[in-house]
Amino acid sequence: MFYDNGYLYCFYSDDRRGPNGSKEGALPGPDQTLVYQRSKDGVNWEDPVDVYSSSNYADRPGMPVITKMGNGVFNGCTSIVNVNIPNEITEIGDRVFKDCSSLSEINIPKDVIMIGKETFSGCSSLSMITIPSRVKTIGRDIFYRFTNLKNVYCRAAILPQHHKDTFVFFEHIGYTIYVPRELVNVYKNADDWELYADKIVGYDFE
Questions:
Q1: Per-residue pLDDT, 5
Q2: What is the pLDDT of residue 23?
Q3: For the residues of 43-112, what is the DSSP string, one character each?
Q4: Contact call for residues 16 and 44 (beta carbons, < 8 A)
Q5: pTM for the full model?
Q6: Nearest to residue 86, comparing CAs of 71, 108, 70, 103?
Q7: CB 11 within 8 A of CB 1
């Protein structure tokens, strides 16, 4: 998946088709096909376009497992409301959801280790976000212009590295940072985290 010239492109292996639609519910065409679709808003997608196709099963175009969301892939997609990031993702690039002003709910998988800079900048409809336990790095300004944020749940047992400005731009909002209860004092006294000590509260994560 990548973004280019105003379009978001998504490539995938499509084996729904068969000769003359021979499979149940299949579409006419070669059995093994690598296709892409493109969209301007991440919601409405154009028809699939074949990149590679073959009727020989042995030629099946395997797709690599994608583990990183590229920089800016959903930047400015104002129609996105809910996002469930695939479990295979371990890194979220810079500005991935920047200015997705309608985004109100997002699920970040537990194996994510890095969240890039400005990732949620301008997501004015998000009121809550959970930072998974394995996150090691949080980019600067990820909550810039995050005007509706109320609760940040940080499950990390090892404190993520982050820029001192990660939370500063919405410090006037009455938000709370929830961390593992046994690590409250560790968070409050850690470099850069101590800037938000009055916002940090212990929480019993399941």
A1: 76
A2: 43
A3: SSBPPPEEEEEES-GGG----PPP-EEPTTTTTT-TT--EEE--TT--EE-TTTTTT-TT--EEE--TT-
A4: no
A5: 0.70
A6: 108
A7: yes
